[in-house]
């Protein structure tokens, strides 16, 4: 995924390229530091009144925003396809569908996830304790180009339902959809500036960090480290969803037809530009040959074309990422890997087109098996047994998600529990992204924090403890003046509380 790019000195506008044909899709303003500060101030003013609303009131206003998005669905689809090159069906049926569903889900669940939690103190029974959640203020979101609506507006919904304002800094590759959807937000009845965006280069994102109360970042490990350092210097909270190198384990008893279909879709959807896409497939040697033949047949049959075509796969979004894929494939080829299909740019097309690619004969030492590829490439490696598959699956600095394919669901679940990843699917892949009830995030270098589930909204809150005295005595035993013989009293108390068997049940 992209690293932050810096604006040229004096640059006031940045062009946006249509990756399907290389033409200019539009341009966006490069926000200055003062303009970023002003956008955050405007958002903060809107957030102050927004935070006073109930969850049901926020939900009603966000559902009006959803109606406005649906009214503009054709324009949204046009813009998404223009700056990403993905098929129109994916723009409509993945990106916009996700955002619309997120609004309904968080509008319904926010109150449950963020309601006061009553605790019963086990020692101080004269007190009543509560754990509460309060919005942090203004959340800055620095977002990537691969799903520019899902990972910007879609991720903003739980932050908004928690009572925050959101300022998005979209990728410089795909800023047009964030501009459009934040403009629709202002027109839909949401407080003006509550959901807004600033555009430009990596420097714009740096400026945003300085003015907001929290950063949510999705992107590369390299950029994530830089952002987290900047946040740490300001003692500012942040969450990071970073890269992935997702493994799939195909067991000897797998349904090979389902596994092949699932791996092809799970690895090549969105032209492989998905942080949770399959990049490494480890196949039991006893079913390796027939499984590979199925993959070759299915990858070769994929239809690739522009957004308006009836295609399975579109182009890549970034020229720099396309070159990275080319370099990894050539490196693997030079080291003896076999390109079974694809493995080159699409001939006769301008824009950023790379053929759906299947590679066998790979080893764990190759770049293509260790570095995030983020392109339409599947790599397959034969393994002797489940133990070797698990070892190789875990032999990675990444740990975002994974999948296990087997007819023995219990056995596959046991394998899944041994994989070092934030989420593992059995006989499926990536589907956890569409289950907002469960948390999604990575381990190791794949990130810090979770989206979805209770964690996905509580991270946008400061947690506050409230303790209320129940009985209103004029004084407490530990207050001044201290009683005589305090040491003797505490000695007796320790014996009574922690050496009497029946009291151990209450006090541990």
Model description:
The strands form five sheets. The chain has a seven-stranded mixed beta sheet, sandwiched between helices. The chain has a six-stranded mixed beta sheet with strand order 7-6-5-8-9-19, sandwiched between helices. The model has no long low-confidence stretch (mean pLDDT about 95). The protein contains 17 helices and 20 strands. About 50% of the residues are buried. The chain is globular and about 90 Å long. Strand 1 (about 15) and strand 2 (about 25-30) form a beta hairpin. It is an alpha/beta fold and about 500 residues long. The chain has helices at about 35-50, 55-70, 75-85, 90-115, 150-160, 175-190, 200-210, 220-235, 255-270, 290-300, 320-335, 365-370, 385-395, 410-415, 455-460, 485-500, 500-505, and strands at about 15, 25-30, 115-120, 125-135, 140, 165-170, 195, 215-220, 240, 245-250, 280-285, 340, 355-360, 375-385, 400, 400-405, 425, 445, 445-450, 460-470.
Stretches where pLDDT is under 50 for at least 5 consecutive residues are none
What is the oligomer described by this structure? single chain
Beta-strand content bin: 15-25%
Shape: globular
Structural class: alpha/beta
- The percentage helix is 40-55%
What is the tally of beta strands? 20
Q: Tell me, rounded to a whole number, the average pLDDT.
A: 95
Number of helices in the DSSP assignment = 17
Distance between the first and last residues' Cα: 49 Å
What is the spatial order of strands in the main beta sheet?
12-13-14-11-10-16-17
- Main sheet summary: 7 strands, mixed
Radius of gyration: 26 Å
